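Below: protein 1.
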Amino acid sequence: MDSAAESIIFIIGAPGSGKGTLCKRLAEEYGFSHLSVGDLLRDVTSSSNTDVTIIDTVKSGELVPVEVLAPMLKGRVDKGKEDGQMKILLDGFPRRLDQAAPVERLLRSPTLVLFFDCPEQIAEKRFLTRMLTGREADDEQTFRKRYQEFSRLNPSIVEHYRTRGIVLEIDTSGETEVSYQRLISALKGTGAWRSLAALM
């Protein structure tokens, strides 16, 4: 469980900061499994077996209790391991600090935590374009609510992992290619990434 071959990277950032886009490319180019917490929860809400209170929580934009979320994540990660997916990008986690420890106990501690830093105005513009691609819930009110929540909760998450020496802050305010090259440059400057790259 502690080998470099089994690694998890947490990705945090405001809505619209580029997490999904950049993670998808990183996963494709470096052989990671990309697990989006947002996509996972949206999948859950479409299931007829899901408790209505969980569906209501997700649709309202509220945080799903960690005692519900953690087993979901473990189930998806375990399924991936059965298919040989040992390196994971956990996109959109944690959204609050008290989510971290229970999930780390079930899975493992992150090798790195990537903080995608993007100004509010740019993030909002990106977020609202999702309405044109089928993400009907992504309206201005939803953005404001989630961004305020992010601004309130994220500093303690960053500080927690910074004390462990595993946070990388990436400026994702630019176009996709610019932001991606910044990400790769930052990753290549870490010993943790070089250890992972040696196994890819």
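Below: protein 2.
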Amino acid sequence: MTMQTLSYQVSFNTPAFLGNAEQQGQWRTPPFKALLRQWWRVVKAPDVGYDHRRLLQLENALFGSAADDSGDGQGRSGRSKVQLRLSAWDAGTMHGVPKGEMVKHDEAPSKQVGANLYLGYGPIGGSVVRTAINPKISPLTLKLRFPAEFESEIRCAMQLAHWFGTVGSRSRNGFGAVHFEGDGLLPAKDIKTDALSKLGVLLVTSRCLHREWPHAIGMDEAGTPTIWRLLKPEGNKLDGFGRWEDVMLGLAQIKIAVRTAPYFKFQGGGPAGHDKPQPRHLLSYPSGNSHSVNGWGKDGRMANQVRFKVHRRLDGKFMAVIVHLPCALPDKLAHAVKGAIPDQENVWSEVHRLLDAQKSKGLIHLAGSQQT
């Protein structure tokens, strides 16, 4: 069997909370393998007609599985054909990430909240100070070794991981924004509709909402991807941000603007909870102590489908990408409530409309952006 090796320089654009056994930041290979698998699914899903059972069988054959996870009904286990190696497993040196610049938030007790705290609640602001991997440290080397027959799909998955990938706690909010260099990777300025179409990873949002797992980047009926770029407004121009903290401030403002828009305002709630989910609940769950859904309770979980990624540009400045991988409300949650569930397509259409309305903050929908 012919083996192929790919080598990358890897660093972070924002602090990364890669928890070890003590929940302290440390370079580790498992989060990178999980990231690779995540984007490999998006690359491979069209080949199997988005059949999650067939996809799971292929994934386990390539990346390995425990016997009870093999998905083939035979109780088989397999060793991974993909090997990852980091040049070091250093501990994180950033002892406590600052709460960040204050942003207006009418739902917060003091009507404002630190931007980093809002996006990184838990690792930031908790009773135990969590160390993180500092984005200012020198890159490490990450090597991938696998059978050569899988080279194309691994390269495509790594490209998506570079463009959109984050790892660790609060990674969907932009922390742990991983930066890869090497082996033919294209920079963030090359995130374009044509490139994504060639990778085969775009699917109309309404079709994505038929499946409850992330399998594609959404697009509207006209072929516009659900991707936005965030840059810094400078008069009539857009430029990069000087610091990662400034990008996170902008992302926090945008997220607050979307979640607190009139369409997503909660009606009722309190100790009695909600008898049926409201539009805000479909964005992510739990949605706050005073807004549990009866039937979902405190144990229900639904991650945010809209992901933030901070990029360091070639000129050293920063920008962000917002990407939506649409998927349906899980059947387990849908069947646990009585009454109507908000129309999911309408909910996400409103999110997209609200994101489009953030142009004054430097947020530009991909199809209309010529800024690199």
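The chain has two domains: 1-185, 187-372.
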